[in-house]
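Known limitations

Structure tokens in this collection are predictions and should be treated as such. Users comparing against experimental data should check residue numbering before alignment. To illustrate the layout, the record for Transcriptional regulator is reproduced below. The input appears on top and the generated tokens appear beneath it.
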Amino acid sequence: MNDKKLHMITKALDNSLRIKILYYLEANNQSNVSNLMNYFETSQPNISRHLKILADANLVYSEKDGQERIYQLSDNHVSQLLGTLKTHIND
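Generated tokens:
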């Protein structure tokens, strides 16, 4: 097990807004910063900071589309993790 990766993932999941961003991306497949700002009613710097932490943990990635970046979950493992969290919370 890679301790550094584990630390980055647990750090990324240690914030309710970041978890909500992950669930939003799972439900909507992708999003830009503006949509996330509007949905969560928070500032661009705040959303960008949280997205950077999620990206550093390899939970999300982005692709440039013209002037903006489009964010989505990194892979199916992230969706599986979110499903497991949801099941655990609801039990």
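For this record: Residues 3-90 form a domain with the Arc Repressor Mutant, subunit A fold (CATH 1.10.10.10). DSSP finds five helices and three strands in the chain. Please report discrepancies through the issue tracker.
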